[in-house]
Specification:
By secondary structure, the chain is of the alpha+beta class. The chain is 54% helix and 16% strand. It has a single domain (7-99), classed as Ybab, Chain: A (2-Layer Sandwich), CATH 3.30.1310.10. It has two helices and three strands. It is rod-shaped, with a radius of gyration of 22 Å. The two termini are 29 Å apart.
Length: 108
């Protein structure tokens, strides 16, 4: 039994695929370009992280004099945790901005 090919459905599927690819490329570019700056609670460590999680800069503010290794390590850990949270937040925000109006798979 021969099947009929719905050419308009195929053309629409190809157009949607191209639109998804275009949105994905825009999202990937935006994720790499978006930077968020975070600090440890004590203000000692500042990190700049992109939305894809790459730490692009680390700065120490103030003196390390009088701080123990444990204190500095805790500040670094807090800043790393904040950087991860910030990257996730930025990614989700960009995802909503990029794909927010795009219908899901079950929607027309």
């Amino acid at each position: 039994m021969a099947r009929e090919i719905d050419e308009s459905w195929v053309e629409e599927a190809i157009a949607r695929y191209r639109q998804i690819e275009s949105l994905r490329d825009a999202f990937d570019k935006a994720v790499r370009a978006c930077e968020v700056t975070v600090r440890s609670p004590d203000g000692l460590v500042e990190m700049v992280v992109t939305a894809d999680g790459e730490v692009t800069d680390v700065r120490l503010h103030g003196s390390l004099h009088g701080r123990t290794n444990k204190d500095v390590a805790a500040s670094v850990k807090a800043a790393v945790t904040a950087a991860g949270d910030a990257a996730r937040w930025a990614r989700e925000k960009l995802r909503a901005e990029t794909y927010g109006d795009y219908p899901g798979l079950g929607e027309p």
